[in-house]
Amino acid sequence: MKSSHSQGYAIKLLPGRSLILVLFMVLAGVSPKLSSAQDGLRIGLTVGGVSKVGVVLERFLNGNQSLELTVGTWSFKEISTSLVIKRYFLSNDLDAGWYKPIHPFIGAGLWVVGAKPPAERLGLALSAIVPIGIDWSFPFDADPSCNNRSCPVGHHALGVSVNLNRALLVRRSNPEDQLPLNGRLVPLPGAYYRFMTRQ
Predict the structure, then answer these.
(1) Residue 55 located in a structural domain
(2) What are the tens digits of pLDDT across the range 22-79?
(3) Which helix or strand (DSSP H or E) is residue 84 part of?
(4) Is residue 145 part of a domain?
């Protein structure tokens, strides 16, 4: 019987349950139901991070949290897709007529890259990803539902992040390639522009 390595697979999980810990930290403040807070959809472009260029959709769940889908590519020969849950910090104080245009965030999710070289089988790579960054939204929009919450309140946003990732599973295009997974955390810097389409 052939081993999983001979079939072109390699599996290695995150040590010390670190991914579970990060997920718990991100989800700890998520309400089980949608609130009246900002629930808009942001659409934008990304450079770096999980792809060289990409398109991102970000759906706010209850103001402080969002679900983010990014689809992009590195060389137009593969598809890179990530799905991340994010949590924003620093609450706005609209009662005082003041808000924070900059909101740090942290997230956790999965990142999949697929490529099909000529005359070879489909190659796939699955990684855990933890984005950490800063979001700057503008101009100010005094949405009362964001009072005492850390949701971005601008119609446009610029952001930078460092995406920490670690490989979980690889299906190599060449079945004879038995190179083991790299167990290191790899930081991938990125930047983005987004605009709000609905609130």
Answers:
(1) yes
(2) 454 544 444 333 333 356 789 999 999 999 999 999 998 876 889 999 999 998 889 9
(3) strand 78-88
(4) yes
d(CA 97, CA 110): 38
Contacts (Cβ under 8 Å, ≥6 apart) of 173 = 8, 115, 116, 117, 120, 121, 122, 123
CA 101 to chain CA centroid, nearest Å: 21
- Do the domain assignments include residue 120? yes
Per the structure, how many domains does the chain have? 1
> Measuring CA to CA, how many Å separate 76 from each of 117, 146, 160?
12, 39, 23
For 76-113, what is each residue's pLDDT tens digit?
Answer: 889 999 999 999 887 665 555 556 678 899 999 999 99
What CATH number is associated with residue 116? Answer: 2.40.160.20
For residues 154 and 88, give the distance between their C-alpha atoms in angstroms, rounded to a whole number: 14
Q: Is residue 3 part of a domain?
A: no
pTM of the model: 0.73
Range of the domain at 107: 9-29+37-198
d(CA 22, CA 177): 32
